[in-house]
């Protein structure tokens, strides 16, 4: 099983793997080579051009292994397959079958298994044993001009609160200490099912589960940010002071063209509000550079916004023209080279900000969770860092600490995206 793209894709792969396991298939997750593999199932991403290319390259890699007799079957599922199934079938006929994003039953049946209804919602966790992702909804009702996800994943569908609590409780009972809440639009949670934004209530119920020491919030769309959410985060020690909130831009004109539902001033007010109501909160955001028609002045406004608001964590994407989206009707006017230059300039600004913010932490003590051992260091994270995408803490002289352990450390040195620390 090879899963590409976001954590939401990973959860889909884990659901499939649980079914495969129940059907007595021997499983290898994300294998390093093809030597002991009979069948490869590739879960693809189709979000932006780079992700599409990675998916295609991976498919071709396994098709090549099949042609050389190293493996027998290649199946493809996920977002790319959902969106481009017919085209992929024509261009890569060596793939045995293509499936979309909601075809788990069909995949199991096709490869000779039986779908186990009693296992609906159960997963084979592939992350380290101490943390996992928890998907609270599927799909998206937003109309962001640059995004094809609603066409791929469909309309927003919240999971019932009781199902989420049941899954989270099972995770805690299995020893998982940190859960990361994900969906396409986390702040929309509950509107379709309960006719109100229910994320604050859901968080409070999750916080009451014994054994969950960290609960982290991802993909909180800024428009419609739920009232009372900051109070819940502040009220519970096991809800991380961390909010992932994709802002995408700050220019009024571009935000309007993107159909984001907010202008620059309302965006600034929201960030100010979050920081006021949750002192010390770490805010992660993502931005898009090179959106169609983005002028030099609008780019400078975005750069100045980053400098002013000094986000704790930040990622920047080069705009990717996605067919059938609202923005695809606009001229993709920014040359690719200039897009990359703008991305690099913004990330250079962020590197300086991150270095400065990290330098302020030298001498301070933090609670961390150890993810892995690597050479002479224990690699850990603070509550302000999500797995795989954010900063890490390299702890020296702590060889006997096992992954999944919490420990307090004092920061001794700081780099742009890493902290060095010693056990307190």
From the 3D coordinates, which CATH architecture of the domain at 2-119 would you assign? 3-Layer(aba) Sandwich
* Subunit organisation of the chains: single chain
* Name of the CATH class of the domain at 2-119: Alpha Beta
Through-space gap between termini: 40 Å
Largest sheet: 6 strands, parallel
Which class best fits the helix and strand makeup?
Answer: alpha/beta
> What name does CATH use for the topology of the domain at 2-119?
Rossmann fold
Structure characteristics:
Transcription Regulator spoIIAA; globular; Rossmann fold; 424 residues; OB fold (Dihydrolipoamide Acetyltransferase, E2P); alpha/beta
Protein model, in words:
The structure is a single chain. Helix 8 runs parallel beside helix 9 (229-235) and helix 12 runs parallel beside helix 13. The protein has 424 residues and is of the alpha/beta class. The strands form four sheets. It has a six-stranded parallel sheet. A five-stranded mixed beta barrel has the order 13-14-15-17-16. It has a four-stranded parallel sheet with strand order 1-2-3-4. The radius of gyration is 22 Å and the shape is globular. Among the domains are: 2-119, Methylthiotransferase, N-terminal domain (Rossmann fold, 3-Layer(aba) Sandwich); 127-244, Transcription Regulator spoIIAA (2-Layer Sandwich), CATH 3.30.750; 365-423, Nucleic acid-binding proteins (OB fold (Dihydrolipoamide Acetyltransferase, E2P)), CATH 2.40.50. The protein is 36% helix and 21% strand. It has helices spanning 7-22, 49-67, 79-91, 104-110, 149-153, 161-173, 191-194, 199-207, 229-235, 252-258, 264-277, 296-309, 336-359, and strands at 2-3, 39-44, 73-78, 97-98, 131-135, 137-138, 157-158, 178-182, 214-217, 239-244, 282-289, 313-318, 365-374, 377-382, 392-396, 406-414, 418-423. The protein contains 13 helices and 17 strands. A hairpin with a 2-residue loop joins strand 13 (365-374) and strand 14 (377-382).
